[in-house]
Amino acid sequence: HTHTHIIKIQLFCVIQGVPVVLLLHELSAYAGDWSILPALPHLSATYGQSASWFVFIEEETRVTLSALLQVLHRYRVHEEWFLGKRIHDNEASIIHHYAFSEDPRSFGYPDPAAGWALSVPLLQRLAEGIQHDHLKSDFTIDLKHEIALYIWEEGNGPKLTAVPEFCTEPRDNCATTFTTYLPNCGDPVSKKDVFVAVKTCQKFHLERVPVVKATWEKDAEHLEYYSDVTDASVPTISLGVPNTERGHCGKTFAIFRRFLSDAVPKADWLLIVDDDTLISLPRLRRLLRCYDPKEAVSLGERYGYNLVQSGYSYTTGGGGMVLSRVAVSRLVSSGCRCYSDDAPDDMVLGRCFTSLGVPITHSPLFHQARPDDYSESLISLQQAISFHKHWNIDPVAVYKHWLQDTNQRDEL
Predict the structure, then answer these.
(1) Most exposed residue of 256, 286, 309, 374, measured as fewest CB within 10 angstroms of its CB?
(2) How far, in Å, CA of 4 to CA of 51, rounded?
(3) Signal peptide span per the entry (predicted)?
């Protein structure tokens, strides 16, 4: 599973110094530790006395320890420091609740791929605050931005200090570099191993479905459109669940039952998308090689709800939800239900999987919003798997630019 890792460096023994390396998912029994803020009190209590710095990196971040120690040496350890590779929004973004809309570039937040660091005095003060504050938002949507906001604290705390040695692309003097969010785990899983369910409704049959057909539908071997009406021209299948304006829980659970039935070819993986999701199935099939379909796997862009107060994580629906057959069958046999047909399916699934002990696995290559809603310097955009929404964009052009591989071999 992709988890952010923490490196904690003990600066007082630099010469033979070996950092203490912690894996966030092994820190405690609480699955919400990935959102870092809930983990700060534990980190502070356990390592706050012995360490000078905490450095947070991704699984695929490479660290040159001697260079990193040299960089950290420039900053006084008794002061509050928040260090990293600074990125910013070019325009006000929905995923950041349109923060700093007058001047989006004014607020910097770290690219997690390059790693970012907190000095111990800052980490201790934050840990103290977490235990007393009520966080403004119940939702964890874009962790790096939300952590930077929390640290900045309306101007009372430090801003991110940009450190050129925190790198994503290799160049001279880098203390960190980044490889890829799409590791090579072997040959892609075959087309027949992925069953694609597209959720649509009558009013979008003419508007959104043609975009799917013009872009990524050709890369799917097994694909069905699920609607509130049967329309032979698409063709769509009606699951007998009326269309709802808000969530699609009833429809999604009907898709699960169909996926497990004999009505459709048996596949290892189920991908559920919206009719305005843009996705690269070849890249997805490369990523799926890294996971074992015999395990209960839930994969996509992970959001959190109420994580500081022991809430739950969920895979956000618009970027695409990928489930192994084992996960679907465990969910269906658990008796977990929608409290109403129009409940938000992605959140209900997150709550169900959390109660079943199925981890919600994150990949930053899935995106709930449009490319324009992200900082263009983010490394996760380079081999993106999905984007979502057609607002004010040409979705076919977005697909061609961001998701279509030019040198595509005809894969199995």
Answers:
(1) 309
(2) 19
(3) none
Output Rg (C-alpha) for the chain, integer angstroms: 22
Which of 296, 365, 308, 278 is CA-nearest to residue 332?
Answer: 296
Please identify which residue in the block is written with the tokens 């705390």.
Answer: 157
At residue 377, what is the residue type? S
Tell me the helices (H) and strands (E) count for the chain, helix number first. 10, 22
What mean pLDDT is predicted for residues 212-229? Answer: 97
Find tokens 């996760």 and name the residue: 380
Residue 411: the pLDDT is: 47
Nearest to 83 by CA among 107, 106, 114, 58: 114
Pairing of strands 360-362, 298-300: parallel
Global pTM?
0.93
Domains observed in the chain: 10-178 (no CATH), 191-403 (3.90.550.50)
The 10s digit of each residue's pLDDT in 80-139 is 999 999 999 988 888 888 889 888 899 999 999 999 999 999 999 999 998 887 666 689
Q: What is the pLDDT of residue 138?
A: 86
